[in-house]
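Q: A reviewer asked whether we had any structural model of the full assembly, not just the individual parts. We don't, so I'm hoping you can provide one. Inputs are below.
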Amino acid sequence: MANALRIAAVDRLGLSLGLTPGLTLADARARIPHLVAADMDRAADAALLARLADWCDRYTPLVAVEEPDGLVLDITGCAHFFAGEENLRRAVMEGLARSGLTVRGSVAGTPQAAGALARFGRKTLGRHDIVPPGEEEMAVRPLPAAALGVSPEVLLALTRAGLKTVGDLADRPSAPLAARFGADLPARLARILGREDVGISPRRPLPPCLVERRFAEPVAREEDIVAALAGLARRAGGILAERGEGGRRFEAAFFRADGRVTRLAVATGRPTRDAAVVMRLFRERLAALADPLDPGFGFDLLRLAVTVCEPLGESQTSLDGRTVEDEEVAALVDRLGARFGPAAVLRPAFVDTHIPERAVRMVPAASLDDSTTPACGWSAGRLDDPPARPVHLFDPPQPIEALAEVPDGPPLRFRWRRVLHEITRAEGPERIAPEWWRDEAGEEPTRDYYRVEDTAGRRFWVFRRGLFGEAPAPRWFLHGVFA
Amino acid sequence: MSAVQETLQALRRSIAAIEPAATEAGQRFTCGAPAVDELLGGGFLRAAVHEIFAREAADAGAAAGFTAGLAARAAADGRRVIWVRQGFCVAETGALHAPGLAALGLDPRLLVVVTGPDAACVLQAGAEALRCPALGAVVIEPWGDPRSLDLTASRRLALAAEQSGVPALLLRIAAMPRPSAAATRWSVAAAPSRPLLANTPGHPAFDITLLRHRSGLESRRWRLEWHREHRLFHEPPPLPRPVVPLPAGRPASPGITRLARTG
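A: Here is a predicted structure for the entire assembly that you could use as a starting point for your response.
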């Protein structure tokens, strides 16, 4: 029955009726004709888990997701905010149960021990909710070998060898175990027994600086929220000042009372710890939101994380006051970036290539650092010649119909956008060969560029792609417009 | 008689008090051509909006070049220039090409290009940039005649420019002049250049028309050329010979040449 529909998960009522995961749906329907079944939706499950993980962020910044149904919270140093591990655990469990979920949870010294106890603990020896430090081994020994989370083949082999519980394995030397069941097994064993702690891989890295504010009652007015955020920005600024640092990226997390979490991030071009600057960026960001921050029944927790920090000394003003001006422009660039997105505020960066469309790379203007661009890069030829490059460049080049002298004369007239241009003056060709080290197939033809001027005095940059007498036949393109 | 003159003086003083104090030389930037600068009273006002229209949509390159030249003149002291463009302009007229701007004398290292999805965003970003007094110039380039660019919007820009003292160059491609708060309004078209050796295209040449001036100057027309080395506009000597369009259907040069239609 390889292709049969099987039950992936059952609720409490189904369990009490004797249904178990793995049973075929036809069998289950035969037993219980009025069974209600829904298709499994892994994406929706993952989304729900991610939302729950967001909600758990309020207890600790370190939350990891264990697909498909587990969450691991690193509560090191967090428990005393909630009056002890027992109260913290109860708060999490009750919060999750309120949203209609069946939850099991336990607290232990390593994430693997806690996970094994939560998944397998209750069945064998009753409640093992909180394991005191150092007693992980005692707690996990009675658990079945399946708690190690090994593959079904290894589990079958262990069962055949008579090693049914974690305790059976814990007594044996690890070298033969590794030789027989794979090197993975002793490592898993050490983690579950609390002998080794590798920590968790949190969904979000721990920010260098984190401040938060909890409200006794959910807050819904936008002015109050912004004022509270400003208070957090000042606190973060104080912490950064003590360290001699400034933030480059700030992330505000708004925890709604019903569990939804909204995050907004702003970035600055230079490190800052000025609360007014940060708040101005956040206001721009809030104003630019397509759907405004929906407070619902209000936010009960506000958190501000400085996710990127850099050293920031006391600023020194140069004699001509240019530093102050640069700061002002950098602040303006940050504001424009916060409102229109960093991808909309760019500056040209020099690229050392002859290919015109690659000669410029637009980089985010937030890094307004002149030192990275070589000064000589932009100088273009002799100053008593006319400009050799156009002010407007089309990418990709625009195809035109041209009439030209063979083999390599400039066009006499060309038609672009349905308008015929008669050429009176022309200069060229300027031959630009493709970069062979990029063009692997060797199919990119050589281009001959001409500067041409039409009867109305408009100057264009046109090129012929390919040479006469070669296949494919050459084609003409308009690449740019001169001033 | 003297009573009349006193009244006149008093009126002038009260007008000067109402008008923003921007008559000193440092409050203007010149374009380089004496005829133009003298007519404007010493150059372009810094704390004001200058509208630059491309005479036809095909003159977008010339209008952009003229604007870049003015921006380079206004930001000659090494301040930064912010160029706000509507995203549609890139598709229609091509992207701003930094080497070309560098060739005109506008240092790309001082340039910040902001792209807005629609005209309202472009005007908003332009107004925001204009409030920053540390800039050399702000170029605002919406496409066509957007509804959002009405008299109120242009007054807002003019007010922002007045307070910060940063010139706003409103570049208008495919647009018709309408009432606005601009101090000057120009129409720019490409002009035939003075050919160099072997009849090659010469330096950028512009055919500019002063359409409107706030103090009611008459419409005037000049032919200007951009001087790369000195980074200024100047009036070139008249063309050595009249520009005659090539007759269609005949080769450019006498003699037998083979022509091929391609593309």
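A: Points you may want to mention in the reply: Chain B has a mean pLDDT of 86. Residues 47-231 of chain B form a domain with the Rossmann fold fold (CATH 3.40.50.300).
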